[in-house]
Amino acid sequence: MNKTSATLHEPAGRLHDRTVDMHRALVSLQEELQAIDVYRQRAEACSDGGLRATFEHHMREEIEHAAMLLEWMRRHDAAFAAQFDTYLYSGEKPVAAVEAVADDARADAATAAIEENAVDNGEPATIGSMKETAWPIT
């Protein structure tokens, strides 16, 4: 049994292939991040310049691998894509400020959806009237 399948929380036969693939990507990302940390620490602690340069090279390679996995995840999971769209390359604002702006935008979108629902069926929208709305988790 490999490490990826050993860390599944549910039987593989009960999971969609895309869920197992995402799990593989997540486990691989964890491994890449751990390797980045190891090489960064080794480079910093190393007294030999040539060995330090080798560790730094390895660290940059692991960063590349992590970035590739993040891009794969963005392309294959709408929830990751949405969060990446919100937070990555969001400027120099503090991350918490980015979150507050995103929360406001989501609240505005929810309000617009409720108002649209009220207009569509001619009745005021209530929580009960929205129970059958499907919220995708992809």
At a glance:
This protein has 138 residues and is an all-alpha fold.
Main features:
5 helices, 2 domains, 138 residues
Q: What number of structural domains do the residues give?
A: 2
Classify the secondary structure makeup into a structural class.
mainly alpha
Q: How many β-strands, per DSSP?
A: 0
Helix content: over 70%
Beta-strand content: under 5%
Main beta sheet strand tally, sense and closure = none
Query: How many helix segments?
Result: 5
Strand and helix order: HHHHH
- Average pLDDT works out at 84
> End-to-end span in angstroms?
28 Å
Indicate the overall shape.
flat
**Radius of gyration, rounded?**
22 Å
Low-confidence stretches: none
Structural summary, described in words:
The chain contains 5 helices and no strands. With 138 residues, the protein is mostly helical. The protein has 2 domains: 1-76; 78-138, no CATH class. Helix 2 (17-45) runs antiparallel to helix 3 (49-76) and helix 3 packs across helix 4 (78-87). The longest helix has 29 residues, at 17-45. It starts with a helix and ends in a 17-residue tail after the last helix. The model has no long low-confidence stretch (mean pLDDT 84).
